[in-house]
């Protein structure tokens, strides 16, 4: 296998480790110098899809199996069930992995998936988040493909404390990849809009996203609206909880990534997510259509 497009992680310590237990995935890389077993199981992976819930990832795995014409009987198997943290399905060259709510749970599985594709010697793997979000001035049900990710300070960067220091990293997604993905939404007649826009990503669903309906709130409705308006003026059209971390970590790891989310609520009209579970289910599948077309094209070329 050519090593030219393998993942080279930005951590020389990994080279000094003879084994690596990907603890939350419950995958043991027993010999990091000879990863034949891992390569056999995961070496063909081209795309890693991630989303908050295990159920959505199961639905996505089933959808992609049909869409990509991949054979398989019964329900896809959760490869990481024994880890009791995340669900991971494999359909042909695609992994579908859950990540929980927010950057902290998402970063844990992302670190381990990045190491997995490195050990498996996957060729130029692409990481895609397929999620839900709040919308900003767009109709609920709109799909937003993220360009630049902004944090809760409305800065286009990811901020993280490391060794007691404030570390700030860039947080943008791969421009050409985003163009490629968004066109599978804009060029189709799906009955909903797909747009490319900036995303605000926060560590808190309530106060962090300027909601007034959390357990505590120390600002007025006017202050909230002013904040949301400022976000809107920065080209932000959706709000979720993983984009800055995902953009910055994948940039550091040198892999291409994208974030494709459907809006559940227009935050300029209110805070509560009031759509029914059936509507939510239908909305959640909208990014599947776009990502499915993108992956099909990728695999056929
Ligand atoms: O992918 P999902 O729908 O889980 O992502 C959004 C952002 C947060 O993780 C969560 C908040 O409800 O939903
Ligand atoms: O408003 C919303 C809806 C979904 N996810 C979020 O993070 N915010």
Please provide a written account of the structure:
The chain is an alpha/beta fold and 301 residues long. It folds into two domains: 13-123, 3-Layer(aba) Sandwich (Rossmann fold); 130-301, Nucleoside phosphorylase domain (Rossmann fold, 3-Layer(aba) Sandwich), CATH 3.40.50. Helices cover 32% and strands 25% of the residues. The strands form three sheets. It has a five-stranded mixed beta barrel with strand order 6-11-10-7-12, surrounded by five helices. A two-stranded antiparallel ribbon has the order 1-2. The structure holds ligand LQZ7MJT6 and uracil (URA).
CATH class of the largest domain: Alpha Beta
Q: How many domains comprise the coordinates?
A: 2
| Strand order within the widest beta sheet | 6-11-10-7-12
> Which segments are poorly predicted (pLDDT under 50) over 5 or more consecutive residues?
none
CATH architecture of the largest domain: 3-Layer(aba) Sandwich
Bound molecules: ligand LQZ7MJT6, uracil
Helix and strand succession?
A: EEHEHEEHEEEEHEHEHEHH
Number of helices: 8
Radius of gyration: 19 Å
Which strand-content bin applies to the residues? 15-25%
Would you tell me which CATH topology of the largest domain applies?
A: Rossmann fold
Distance between the termini: 19 Å
The 3D shape can be described as globular
User: Would you identify the CATH H-level superfamily of the largest domain?
Assistant: Nucleoside phosphorylase domain
Q: What is the number of beta strands?
A: 12
Characterize the biggest β-sheet.
5 strands, mixed, barrel
> What number is the mean pLDDT?
97
Kindly state the percentage of residues in helix: 25-40%
Pfam families: PNP_UDP_1
Protein name: GH19395
Family: Belongs to the PNP/UDP phosphorylase family.
GO molecular function: uridine phosphorylase activity
């Amino acid at each position: 296998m050519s090593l030219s497009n393998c993942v080279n992680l930005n951590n020389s310590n990994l080279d000094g480790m003879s084994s690596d237990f990907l603890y939350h995935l419950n995958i043991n890389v027993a010999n990091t110098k000879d990863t034949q077993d891992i390569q056999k199981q995961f070496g063909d992976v081209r795309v890693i899809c991630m989303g908050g819930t295990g159920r959505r990832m199961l639905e996505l795995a089933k959808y992609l199996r049909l869409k990509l014409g991949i054979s398989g009987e019964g329900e896809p198997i959760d490869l990481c069930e024994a880890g009791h943290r995340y669900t991971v399905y494999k359909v042909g060259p695609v992994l579908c992995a859950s990540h929980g709510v927010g950057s902290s749970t998402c970063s844990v599985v992302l670190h381990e998936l990045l190491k997995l594709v490195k050990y498996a010697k996957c060729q130029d793997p692409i990481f895609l988040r397929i999620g839900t979000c709040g919308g900003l001035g767009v109709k609920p049900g709109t799909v937003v493909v993220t360009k630049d990710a902004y944090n809760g300070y409305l800065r286009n960067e990811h901020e993280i404390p490391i060794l007691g220091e404030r570390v700030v990293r860039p947080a943008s997604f791969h421009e050409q990849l985003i163009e490629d993905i968004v066109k599978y939404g804009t060029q189709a007649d799906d009955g909903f809009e797909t747009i490319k826009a900036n995303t605000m990503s926060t560590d808190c669903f309530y106060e962090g996203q300027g909601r007034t309906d959390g357990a505590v709130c120390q600002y007025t409705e006017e202050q909230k609206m002013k904040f949301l308006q400022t976000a809107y003026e920065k080209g932000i059209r959706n709000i979720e909880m993983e984009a800055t971390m995902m953009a910055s970590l994948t940039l550091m790891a040198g892999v291409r990534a994208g974030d494709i989310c459907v809006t559940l609520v227009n935050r300029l009209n209110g805070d509560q997510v009031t759509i029914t579970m059936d509507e939510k289910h239908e909305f959640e599948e909208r990014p599947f259509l776009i990502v499915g077309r993108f992956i099909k094209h990728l695999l056929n070329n």
